[in-house]
Amino acid sequence: MRTAISTLDVRSVATIQDAVAVMRDEARVPIAGATDLFVALNFGTLASRRFLDIWRIEELRRIAVNGDVLMIGALATYTDLIRSPVIAARLPMLAEASRLLGGPQIQNRGTIGGNIANASPAGDSLPVLAAVDATVVLRSAAGERRVAFNGFYTGYRESVRRADELIVAVEVPAVSGRQWFRKVGTRAAQAISKVVIAGVRDDRSVRIALGSVAPTVVRARRTEEALGAGASIDEAVQLLRDEIVPIDDIRSTAGYRRLVSGNLVRRFLADTQ
Amino acid sequence: MRLTLNGEARDAVSAPMSRLLDVLREEFGLTGTKEGCGEGECGACTVLIDGAPVCSCLVPLAQVDGANVQTIEGLGDDHPLQHEFMKEVGAQCGICTPGMIMAALSLGENPTLDDIKVALAGNLCRCTGYAAIYRAIMKANAR
Fold it and tell me: Do A76 and A111 contact (CB within 8 A), yes or no?
């Protein structure tokens, strides 16, 4: 551990009400399963010294259907998502993404709210949420607001969430058509994605979202529009490769990511024809 | 901070943001739990919290207040997994072994090879090539 533990201050809360009251009065970083936060702490790269432990807020663990909307509590772990019959029935590609994220130890602790809050462009659940046009539910002492997931991120690791707001849930409208998810990494488990993609296709539209190919998770809007206007698969693949903005980093290269992203879109379109 | 550790109620006095891994090793002297990578990639520090395997390097002490924590020491020294790991030479350098065994505890009777690979997907071994580990678990869980 390269961060001096004695300099860290943590408060634990058991209700949303207590959490947002603390966040109104004090600048604290919420901790859920700590699978990202403790990596940064261990390596001494986290600036924050004051934390709010929200792990025990049971009301944030709920996965439920309200009318047509699937509501996933922010503290639902990947294991919860893998085991949930509601997720299996309505959003199976989220269970698939969860199975490919980390290993059992990480799946038991990592949460969907944490994946959203951590704001990594490589977050594996994020293309799923982008492809289904999910909504992020934010709560503060002043009240609740809903933000379209596709407008949530404003740049690399930046979002519209204010410091006094807690992510309490993500809402997913009814999804019709085929769902498709693929992750490309060094191995199935414990690998951060080189490219990750989620797609939804029905009779009327195609929706495609990708991770690890831009500063944030992205929807491939130009490719989607072209497909809607009758573009061929070859044209779509070329457009997609032009549309994304991957970089070279320790996990892969821009060229590889561009090539593989196009291949994945080709596979998605072929599989869901 | 109070937790149940290997079946006994224990009070912990470490700082609340301490890693559970460090509390186990340094405050309680339970050095069977190993530190590998310190970032949740290798599974060497796997313990059970309320029955579920987790990486103890990524858990703040504050989050185990009131929880039930089980480490490799909690198995005693006569568990079938321990015997089979020795017989099959599922341990070479041994650093990954406690984590492998704690992760394997989540498996039921007669697991398939695929079940075992999924259960151990979060545990790395750089010595054995895994085959001996899978064999040991297969035998320990055979009924």
Answer: yes
ipTM above 0.95 for this complex: yes
Q: Give the H/E segment covering residue A226.
A: helix A221-228
* Strand (E) or helix (H) holding A182: strand A178-184
d(CA A235, CA A226): 8
pLDDT in tens, chain A (273 residues): 777 888 899 999 999 999 999 999 999 999 999 999 999 998 888 889 999 999 999 999 999 999 999 999 999 999 999 999 999 999 999 999 999 999 999 999 999 999 999 999 999 999 999 999 999 999 999 999 999 999 999 999 999 999 999 999 999 999 999 999 999 999 888 889 999 999 999 998 999 999 999 999 999 999 999 999 999 999 999 999 999 999 999 999 999 999 999 999 999 999 998
DSSP type of residue B34: P
- In Å, how far from its chain's centre is CA A226? 26
Pairing of strands A69-73, A63-66: antiparallel
Query: Which residues face B22 on adjacent strands?
Result: none
For the entire predicted model, the pTM comes to 0.96
Around A132, how many Cα atoms within 13 Å sit in the side-chain half-sphere? 27
Residue contact A105–B40, C-beta within 8 A: yes
Of A64, A106, A110, nearest in space to A87 by CA? A64
Whether A55 sits inside 8 A of B38 (CB atoms) is no
Q: Where are the alpha helices (DSSP H) in A27-149?
A: 37-42, 78-83, 85-90, 92-99, 104-107, 112-118, 126-131
Q: In Å, how far are A249, B23, B50 from B10, measured between CA atoms?
A: 45, 12, 15
Q: Would you call A31 an interface residue with chain B, using a CB distance cutoff of 8 Å? A: yes
Residue in chain B lying closest to A40 (CA)? B39
Chain A residues near residue B123 by CB distance under 8 angstroms: 103
d(CA B40, CA B35): 10
Q: Considering only CA atoms, which of B143, B10, B3, B131 is closest in space to residue B69?
A: B3
Yes or no, beta carbons of A104 and B63 under 8 Å apart: no
Q: Helices (H), strands (E): how many in chain B?
A: 5, 5
Q: Do B41 and A190 touch (CB under 8 A)?
A: yes
